[in-house]
Every structure is written in C-alpha cells, then in structure tokens.
Amino acid sequence: MTVLILGGTGEARALARELASAGTVFLSSLAGRVRNPALPVGEVRIGGFGGADGLARFLREHRIVAVVDATHPFAAGISTNAAAACTATGTPLLRLQRPGWSDPSGRWTWVDDHDDAAAAASSGGRIFLSTGRQTLQRFVGPLADRQVLVRVVDPLGYEPPAGWTVLCARGPYTLDGERELLRDNAVDTLVTKDSGGELTRAKLDAAAELGIRVIVVRRPAAPLGVRTVDSVDDAVGWVLTQAE
After folding, report:
1. Nearest alpha carbon to residue 13 among 41, 47, 46, 35
2. Residue 26 and residue 93: Cα distance in Å, rounded?
3. pTM to 2 decimals?
4. Cβ 131 vs Cβ 145: under 8 Å
C-alpha cells in the first residue's frame, strides 16, 4: 500500500524524508522537465502519466492509497489531472503548497498571466526575467527589442533575441548576490511569478532596496474541492492517517 508524492519541489523532498523516517511506503514522481533534478530519498519515477486517465490507471495498478500533490504552484496541469484522477478512483488527495509572497511595499504590479506580464514589462528599459524556462516564449515577441537578462536552470535550447543575456544558475540565491546582479545589469524592471518560499525571495528584497519595479504573475487557481496545507508537518500528519 503506497503513498504517491507528486514532487519536484523542496517541500516534496522534505515530505519524502519525513515519510521515510516514519517507515511509510511511498513513491515520488517527477515530471522530468529539469536536467539533473534534485532527487528525494526513496523510490523515484520520472516522466508523465498520460493525462488524468493515465494517472488514474497508475493509481489503480499500483494500489496507491493516497496522493500528495506537492508540485510547483504553477504546475496547474498536473494538479488538475491529479484532482480528476483521484476523484475517478476515490483516492484521497492533499495539496501541499508553500505560501505565496506578500508585497510589504504595496507597489508590486500583479498580473494574471505571463502575456500580461510581458505587456507590462514592455515599457521597461533593462528587464530581468525570472519566470522559468517553460514560459519564456511568451516574452520573446513583446520584448524582442529590449535589453533582457534571463535566468534559467537549464539552457534554452534556442537562440534568444540579440539583446537578451541568458544566465544559467540554480538557487538558493543570497540578498548580496541578487543585489549585485541587479546593479551590474542596470535592471529597472523585475518580472517573476508568485512561486513563494525563501529560495528565490532575495531578488524581491534586492529590488525593493534598489527601487526597481516588480511585476508578479499570480498563481493559477487550485482545483476546487482539494484540501490544501502549507506545511510539511501537516502533510505528514495527513498521510499517516490515510496509511493506517
């Protein structure tokens, strides 16, 4: 009887460690979109399921007793599929999602999607894009003639516009390092998404110090009816009650 963790986040790795310590049988699943991902302890599978129907088959075939969706806050597709598959199979589902960021200054520009973020950023002179590799194509057209710094974990795999600089790096990032990055590149506009957590928060604090405009993409809405917690401890408690 196995618990399935839909992972790829620090919270998912922490949950795996806690369940391993508790002696709970679990399997972590990663989407495989990042090269050399940080792997959790325990058994890991990498790759998609083939949509909601494929995930439902997987739950039945592997006798999954509960699912924890600990994917990234912007991984809306897998969260939607998990809700549908768990409903179809009667499998208990919990969403473990870190809290979003708050704006202490009250000056951030919040937008609903990456297209709106690109439009808002187009008035900037030197732009720092920190929205992830998967969404960058949404910015290429609107910002093709701008000076843009892009930070990604893996190489883009295509030639960016002439004025773009691509930096490959993996967090966590420090306040001093982010401050230096923004200054050295004369950034006047930061574009990011509401990932939450502390691993990448420093860029926002550095931007506040330097008076840089911040544009933040709101999180997609979570599937209706799915219980959500924001701490690993709460997720562990829920799993242990399901696995009894």
Report:
1. 41
2. 14
3. 0.90
4. no
